[in-house]
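Suppose a colleague, Dr. K., hands you the sequence of a protein chain of 516 amino acids and asks what its three-dimensional shape might be. Before reaching for any lab equipment, you can write down a predicted structure in token form. Begin with the sequence itself:
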Amino acid sequence: MRRAATVLLALAAAAVSTANADNTLRIGSKRFTESYILGELLAQTAAPHAKVEHKQGLGNTAIVLAALKSGSIDVYPEYAGTISQEILKRTQPATLEEMQRELAAQGLGAAVPLGFNNTYALAVRGDAGGPRKLSELAARRELHYGLSHEFIGRADGWPGLAKRYGISATPRGLDHGIAYEALAQKQVDVIDIYSTDAKISQYGLRVLDDDRAYFPRYDAVLLYRLDAAQRFPAAWQALRALEGRISVADMIAMNAAAELRGQPFAGIARDWLAHQEASATPAASRSAASREAPASSRAPTLWQRLFADDFWPLTRQHILLVALSVAMASAIGIPLGILAAYRPKLREPVMAAAGILQTIPSLALLAILIPLLGTIGTVPALCALFVYALLPIIRNTCTGISGVPQGLKQAAEALGLRTMQRLKEIELPLAAPVILAGVKTAAVMSVGTATIAAFIGAGGYGERITTGLALNDNTLMLAGALPAAVLALLTQGLFEWMERGFKASAAARAPARLRA
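The predicted structure, expressed as tokens, is then:
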């Protein structure tokens, strides 16, 4: 016990030492276009002064805030109204100074107003005779609402808005990236928008006047860990230089470049920073810069998206997530399946527990694991995939062991084989094809389920899918879904080949052992 404790203490000390020695500034972003772009702006601004990592598209406010508090990220772009009402739970808007005082107790700070206000609003199609003010919605009971899930649940979102304006409708939850298309196709009549969305003009929408002043200002600021400013002083000074430099027009233009022209977030941020630098240079330099060939505005093809520079890194991340989670599930699930087969009284509880774990919705499980584990990324993603892989492995192991013919078991006992010898020499070889089929099912399922890992910054093909959802970009979503489907087919083919080999060897192995 003392040796085990010493080893654990040494490992803990090594982990702390590694964490303290970490010299990477980690920047986070939420899962919508503007946050992706702002995250890239921050990353590229800080990059000359520190080692930087951008953990993009981490999810909603709760997930990104949990990542910030746990130290998984150091800073991310946020909005004053969200900090005031959603994070600090204030009923009235707070000034930046008030937010700083209250956040300091949590080891956090808010600073660097970037220069634009991206408030919430509701929008409708620009048809004649449609509502023009939020106060008109209460009388229009025929309207159908399609609102983002976060807006429906936020303290400063739908509940307060419906109360302020006396709206009794029940909204339908929609991902923000597809809400515009749903509105255009008349599947819904009212959606929530951000005032800097580029698609407002593209779809010819009418933004409803907030005539009772419900929405506060949502000035873009940086929400950060106080120790990050101390650990990366040069990078922090570079980030502070962004204060007041991004106008509403700039932000709308950058959102349009991503959503309407399919330009990558990193390229959009790089172009904006280059423009800012060029605007500060003499006229001759600006003239020379203006003669450079402009970036192509054509959206990339599916083939280009499939085999973009991130293909192999995402493939490695996806395979690693699947392989590790299935290996862990096999290491735990196979012994549990054997135990369930040998102890019929334990069979139902073990199966029920594994079944209940598998019924937990994936995103809910991830949201639970982040505060429990105190981190985002690979660790909670592996835990979630491990949970979902357990049931088929346990079930098939139990079925395979229980299905070994009783005559062979009696013959083994007659030959004097002990329980462990019988299990090793007779039962496991015969049950191997069934057990392997369970591992195959778990592996194929994990290939698909692993796409959720991108919601918490663990990478994999899901990064393309989540970004495509945010941009309503079907090509990008296909560029993530197709490799995942191919990987699932390859995984199934590999396991079926292994199954055939096990069946062939198992057919001759047990009788041969008994004859010996």
